[in-house]
Amino acid sequence: MSGIHRIDTSLGPIQAAFDALGTVIYLGFAEHEFRTSLQAKLSRLDPVMHPDATAVCRLREQLEAYAAGRRTAFDVPFRLHGSPFEQRVWAGLQRIPFGETRSYGQLAAELGDANLSRAVGRANGANPVSILVPCHRVIGANGTLTGYAGGLAMKERLLRLEGAIRNPAPRGVVSR
Questions:
Q1: CA-to-CA distance for 127 and 28, rounded, in angstroms?
Q2: Which of 64, 26, 21, 52 shows the shortest CA–CA distance to 149?
Q3: I need a labelling partner for 14 at 20 to 30 A (CA). Which of 52, 68, 77, 101 fits?
């Protein structure tokens, strides 16, 4: 798809798209399958073919600082487009502190209805700016690592980097 740019980072290759103002409108892992629904949504946002070099550099620098353990939050501008419910879920994701996790049910309860955990999971999976909106911080109710667009190995890597899981945790299980 045009407007998607590869950024090589120590986390691996990242795909990003920017609008004309240099705002991130998509961020994901290059090695995962690009979701058709997200691709259709992104094309309507009119990503630019040649984003502002300063915006790309700033994003790369912040991702590298995060990967090196020198950054716990991002201040690159990003724009989220989704349904009102998705917007609520994504706002909830942004309130999960660095180094902590929530289950889908906990996040649903924080949004007002613990029975919406499946809907929260779908909205979590539709997050268009991985890492910046920390969907990797949502885990299964029993502490297992569940679905992540970048793959479970990357989810585990990000949570270990943040200190949310520690060695020796069995793969797929969160230790506290």
A1: 9
A2: 26
A3: 101
Torsion of CA 134, 94, 101, 114, to 10 degrees: -120
Strands 12-18 and 24-29: antiparallel
Distance CA 77, CA 63 (A): 13
Q: Over the stretch 131-176, which tens digit does the pLDDT of each residue have? A: 999 999 999 988 889 888 888 999 999 999 999 987 544 444 444 3
- Which single residue is written with the structure tokens 């889908």? 104
CA dihedral in degrees (110, 174, 136, 94; nearest 10)?
40
Query: One of 25, 42, 135, 139 is an active-site residue; which one?
Result: 135
Tokens representing 112? 């007002």
d(CA 84, CA 95): 17
Model pLDDT for residues 23-61, shown as the tens digit of each residue: 999 999 887 655 556 666 777 777 778 888 999 999 999
Average pLDDT for 58-83: 95
CA distance 103 to 144: 9
Of 124, 97, 154, 45, the closest CA to residue 16 belongs to 45
